[in-house]
Amino acid sequence: MFDRKKYQVQYRRKHRKYFSRKHKEWRLRNKVQFAANQKMGDFKRYWMIEPQPCAVCNSKETECHHPNYVFPLCVVWLCKVCHGMVTSKLLGFADISHGIVDYGSLKRLGKLNKLT
């Protein structure tokens, strides 16, 4: 039986230079998005942020979505399926706005615990 995951891993290893170059090009084209993703990743590690359930379907396996990259600590937690629907405009802002969490404000208010 064909194992797509295994094939993709092997393909990426074989073409590592190509994917590395493409990623570098993307980072240079999308500096604001890259910076927002880096800042949120660092923030999650440093402040021990636990992923929240999906704002749409309440699934437990979630990832961050930035409604606006200008505010990198303001995110919505979405599962992979809902995240895809939001980025492809099948779900609008009204569908996810109730799930926005501003970690910058929580930090300023002292409601987060640092990693010790």
Output the keywords:
116 residues; mainly alpha; three-stranded antiparallel beta sheet; 3 strands; globular
Strands, helices and their partners?
Blueprint: H1 4-14, H2 16-29, H3 31-47, E1 63-65, E2 74-78, H4 80-87, H5 93-96, E3 100-102, H6 103-108
Antiparallel strand pairs: 1-2, 2-3
Description:
- The chain is mainly alpha-helical.
- It has one domain (4-108).
- The protein contains 6 helices and 3 strands; from the N terminus they run αααββααβα.
- The chain has helices spanning 4-14, 16-29, 31-47, 80-87, 93-96, 103-108; strands at residues 63-65, 74-78, 100-102.
- It has a 3-stranded antiparallel beta sheet with strand order 1-2-3.
- A hairpin with an 8-residue loop joins strand 1 and strand 2.
- The radius of gyration is 17 Å and the shape is globular.
- The mean pLDDT is 88.
